[in-house]
Amino acid sequence: MSHPSRDFDVIVVGARVAGTAAAIMLARSRRRVLLLDKAAFPSDTISTHIVLSGGTQVLGRIGALERLERAGGFRFASMRTLGPGFDFKAPLYRPGEDLRGLCLGREKMDAEMVALARSFDTVTFRDRLRVTDLVIEDGAVAGVRCEDSAGSSEFRAPLVVGADGIRSTVAAIAERRLGAFKRSDVPCARAYYYAYYEGVGAARLGDELITEFEASPGAGNLVCRCEDGRVVAAAAFDANEMRSFRTDLAGNLRRHLDESIAVGALLADGSMVGKVRSSGLLLNTYRDPVADGALLLGDSGLHVDPLFGQGHSMALISAEIACSLAPGWFSARSGNSISARTMDPFRTKRDEVLMPHFRASERASRELTLSPTTLAAYRAASREQWAADEMVRFAQMAPDARFPSFRFARLMAQQARAA
Ligand SMILES: Cc1cc2nc3c(=O)[nH]c(=O)nc-3n(C[C@H](O)[C@H](O)[C@H](O)COP(=O)(O)OP(=O)(O)OC[C@H]3O[C@@H](n4cnc5c(N)ncnc54)[C@H](O)[C@@H]3O)c2cc1C
Q: What's the CATH architecture for 10-49+105-186+283-365?
């Protein structure tokens, strides 16, 4: 085993959306960061790649957005949502306000984020390095134990950030050994499959993100342009149908999209390229994100059903909240590790900002049909453009988006009385 190193302020485990964003922000405040991942980069991961406005705002602030655009990231400039009895659309770009989203395949996006993080001289990047255990001293996380092809190694730092995804090793080990990072889970009622299409004409699909619900119970679709002229299309359906869906992935995806309200027709002149991908069954997971010496960011701390494409934005926003508070944590530190109590404001702020979105998605994720309240809200958004604007701002996790406003609730009430 190599000698323990105390040369880092922070060890970030996981070098995709949450981990790279955190490393970039920590490096900007001159923290010495070890950013590591068991994967080799560039590499893909199972995920479509909608980054909502809330996420692109963070990417802009950390200096990554232009780079991702240059790498081919498609900026969607409006959002349309449709389903039984509703169809509304709102622009994401107005003079003085740019709320456009981003859609760039994860292989390219993650590679660009890693490259930006590595450009800071205070960031040490290691891929193909797997965390297998945590160093625990005096009841606190004090570092990580790792393995790679050269053998095992140990690294220490006052703060270990678990940005290692849904099946977080950092969270699982700290939970088992310290009783930290308490979790609660709600299973996702839907399964998700996606594929890429080529040759989809601009006359059919322009610069919009389209989400569609309930051509049949549990059905949902998402479609958007991404890099290299391709289109990414995702299908959601009852998770109980996953086994039969798998018997003919391409055929069943085609059939699902053909039976959609509008998405299938948008793809009619395109052809599927590559394979159909899926994540298998998923959970909505809330974890208490702080422990003595460690913190969880992104999916490891808050994993939400992909139905509304919020995961990247939640990861980016949680990383930004943590990194805005972190300078105070280092100056307040008394022992070897930063205490959970010191990091408590992160939990408070993360939950204040993200839980309204998480809870709304979790409610929709439990059931195969949209609730009467959600349907009523979507139908209200279809009636008035200001209501569509408000709904889309919330769906995009735009800064300062509150939903529903008094005016929106009144519109829903009027609609209910008229029905
Ligand atoms: C089918 C599907 C579609 C989705 N579509 C969207 C979408 O359109 N928009 C959206 O916003 N979100 C979407 N999501 C969610 C999104 O993918 C996640 O929210 C996002 O990837 C979270 O980023 P992260 O950095 O927290 O974790 P991850 O991207 O999961 O990265 C975790 C990293 O940690 C590394 N790691 C894990 N364990 C270890 C270890 N022991 N040692 C070292 N490294 C380790 C992994 O190799 C990985 O690289 C989708 C998810 C799925 C499943």
A: 3-Layer(bba) Sandwich (3.50)
> Ligand 1: which atom is nearest the Cα of residue 279?
53
- In the chain, CATH 3.30.9.100 covers 189-278
CATH architecture of 189-278: 2-Layer Sandwich (3.30)
Q: Is 360 near ligand 1, meaning CB less than 6 Å away?
A: no
Nearest ligand 1 atom, CA 132: 41
CATH 3.50.50.60 segments of the chain:
10-49+105-186+283-365
Going by alpha carbons, the residue nearest to atom 30 of ligand 1 is: 165
CA distances to 85, 101, 338 from 59, in Å: 35, 10, 27
Mean pLDDT along residues 268-296: 96
What is the tens place of the pLDDT at every residue in 336-382?
Answer: 899 999 999 999 999 999 999 999 999 999 999 999 999 999 999 99
Question: Do the Cβ atoms of 32 and 294 come closer than 8 Å?
Answer: no
| Cβ neighbours for 79, distance < 8 A, ≥ 6 positions apart | 89, 90, 92, 101, 208, 209, 210, 211, 392, 395, 396
d(CA 317, ligand 1 centre) in Å: 15
Asked whether 306 lines ligand 1 (CB < 6 A), one says yes
